Amino acid sequence: MDETTEQLNRVFAALADPTRRDLVARLAAADATVGELAEPYDMSLQAISKHVKVLEEAGLVTRSKVAQRRPVHLDAEVFDLMTKWIERYRRTAEERYRRLDAVLSRMSETDQPQEDAS
């Protein structure tokens, strides 16, 4: 498998978990530390840290050090990769539906009773 496919596999696997999807949604609004991310959940700081690590390994987030804080940032570039992948299959599906619509339209036209010209 090529690197792009591997990264997509990691991203989609990371986003399969509802807690990680929620973390991504929250990070879309603002950067946060692991402690801040953990606040609304009934799970340990270590568990949230593991979720963040999975997101980080998938390339969805990065961490930096600002003074004593270590904020987690959402990395939007990975979403571009996902969007391109999804868009390719969306276009293919739309083309198939257009062809199906054309076939159904032709079938509908042939099913119409012909008016008698006499």
Automatic annotation (TrEMBL):
Domain HTH arsR-type: 1-93
SUPFAM superfamilies: Winged helix' DNA-binding domain
PROSITE patterns registered for this protein in UniProt: HTH_ARSR_2
Domain of life: Bacteria
Entries under Gene3D superfamilies matching the protein: Winged helix-like DNA-binding domain superfamily/Winged helix DNA-binding domain
Pfam families: HTH_20
Record's protein name: Metalloregulator ArsR/SmtB family transcription factor
Native species: Amycolatopsis tucumanensis
Organism classification: Bacteria, Bacillati, Actinomycetota, Actinomycetes, Pseudonocardiales
